[in-house]
Each structure stands twice: as C-alpha cells, then as structure tokens.
Request: fold
Amino acid sequence: MPTIITHAAVPLCLGLGLGSKAIPRGLLLAGIALAMLPDADVLSFKLGVAYGNVFGHRGFTHSLIFAFVVPILVLWLGRRWFKASLMRCWAFLTVSLLSHSLLDSVTTGGKGVGWLWPWSDERFFAPWQVIKVAPFALSKYTTPYGHQVIMSELLWVWAPGVIFMAVMIWLRRR
Ligand SMILES: [Zn+2]
Reply:
C-alpha cells in the first residue's frame, strides 16, 4: 500500500477541486473513509491469514466487485447525509474506493491486488510500478527507505492531486 493517509489524497483533492456544491462535506468524508477502507484487511495478519489468501491483505477488499458494491451499500444506508444526487454520490464513492486498489497496483512491492475476486484468486499489478511500497511498521518511516516512500507518494500522488485541485478551483473561480 501507499501509506493510508496517501489513499485519502484522491477523494480529498477531487472533492475539494470540484467544490462543496458538487461534493458536499458529508460525501467527501465518506469518500475519504472508503478510499482507506480496503486496508482494514491488514487486521487479517493479526488473525494469522496468509498474505496471498483472498481474505488476506490486498485480497477481496481490493477487488473490483468490492469497489462497486460497497458504495451501493453505503448509499442505501446513508444516502440522506450526502445531499447530492444518487448518481453523483455513487460515482464519487466508487472512484474513491477504486482509487485504492489502483494506487496499490502501481507500488513497487508486496503482492498484487485481487481485482477479480471471487472469480479468480490471481493478484495483479499495473504494467508499471512507480510508488515505493509502504512498510507496515511505523518505525520504518524514520529510515532512509521510509523517506523514499514518503517522497515517492508526494511525487506521484500528492503533487498531481494538489495541481489538479488548484486548477479546478481556479477554473471554478473564473
Ligand atoms: Zn491496500
């Protein structure tokens, strides 16, 4: 994974860029939560589930079906908090959740993502890996490798995200 905080970058920059009229605050917060949700599967390590298992890290919570179904469930349960049209809510939540496995697939390590669960247990990577894979232990972030991880996330996720956000805000103000 990129660090969990970096997974929030996609909905955050997209939502703030589009503005609170298009993406109200409640919807923005839900998008951020969904972008981070798939990594709740790291708890499986504590339960002794192997990394390569579908219920292990980057398994079913990183699948395409999870990214399409969970936003529908969230809307079914909490639609009235979002104050935006159903289609817009669904699109924003789905893009937010899907961005998680896409970012994981361009990291330099770990196992790939289980996009095709439940049809296949295969793990996938994108054709190119540019984001240095984040270590699980927080203590590793003080090492030179940890600094490289942070730099690669700033370069490949935060910088384009902030530029996109700034351009969108500028376009809206014109
Ligand atoms: Zn992940």
